[in-house]
Amino acid sequence: TSASEEAEPGTHGALTRAGGVRGEAEGAPDSEQLAEIGLRFEVDGEIATITLDRPERRNAQTFATWSALAQIGTTLPEQVRVVVVRGEGPSFSAGIDVRLFTPEGVSGQGSFASAAALDGGTIDQRIREFQEGFLWLRRPDIVSIAAVHGHAIGAGFQLALACDLRVIADDTKFCMKEPALGLVPDLTGTKPLVDLVGLSRAVEICLSARVVEAGEALRLGLAERVVPGDELQAATKELATSLLATDRDAAAATKRLLQGASGRTLEEQAAAERAEQRARIKALFGGVRQA
Ligand code: CAA
């Protein structure tokens, strides 16, 4: 039996079946299984925190990481309004687990070589499932914040880009390394990167696979705020708390409007504002007796 055929608890079949953690299709993910994958998930009132927790491998991500992230999204408790994504140890995330590039792969999860043996439609479906782990972070009913420090490489950079906001430590190093390894960034990072820095700069960053350090990241709009490393946690908490100041439904409606703005004309956007406001007025004042 090769290493790639031996199942690790909680990770078996991550490459070859639908997303989700074994035995936890319903309800919140099991914390022990998340720990085996290298994740922690904690909820404190309206704020949830996802921690990449495999510091001994610089929070390298596997296929199971993305399936578990997707499951956290589908089972997110209803009261949660802000989701923080952070990393334990010296780095936010060193990207994909490079063992997946070896023929042996990661135990229980196969490898790129075993993925290459699948038909095109199946590969497409697997990637779609992995992308679900990133896409839900843009949902209008939540605001997601990446709290980034140290290296955020490849899938790590894309996870930071999948969030609505980024607070970063002054030692942050972003790098879109995929093209240097013969692959493309496919974990939903290309659109937010272009939206944030523009096409020319995105081409330059991705095709050189160079490091973007914290100061430049702030200038380019890749981060909302840069803070000293020992202030990252407090700055993230402060931002998260500030986002709870607004009405929950108005916040979701406003995020929907803002998200749709770049794809609409001014007239279309004005119409979208009217539609959202109609719904707000009905919801807020519908039952109030007129004077
Ligand atoms: N996968 C698996 N293990 C990793 C890893 C990764 N991506 N990154 C680091 N590790 C492991 C190292 O092998 C090392 O393990 P040992 O202690 O057993 O030797 C341990 O983590 C610590 O690593 P370093 O000693 O290298 O730590 P450092 O702080 O000096 O350097 C680093 C950190 C700059 C991130 C460096 O580890 C590095 O360059 N890692 C590889 C980054 C990489 O190429 N990632 C892939 C990007 S592409 C992608 O993500 C998406 C895609 O689709 C291809």
From TrEMBL:
Disordered: annotated segments: 1-32
Pfam families: ECH_1
PROSITE patterns xref list: ENOYL_COA_HYDRATASE
Domain of life: Bacteria
Gene3D superfamilies referenced in this protein's UniProt entry, alphabetically: 2-enoyl-CoA Hydratase, Chain A, domain 1 (3.90.226.10)
Membrane-traversing stretches: none
UniProt family annotation: Belongs to the enoyl-CoA hydratase/isomerase family.
Name recorded for this polypeptide: Enoyl-CoA hydratase/isomerase family protein
Organism classification: Bacteria, Bacillati, Actinomycetota, Actinomycetes, Streptosporangiales
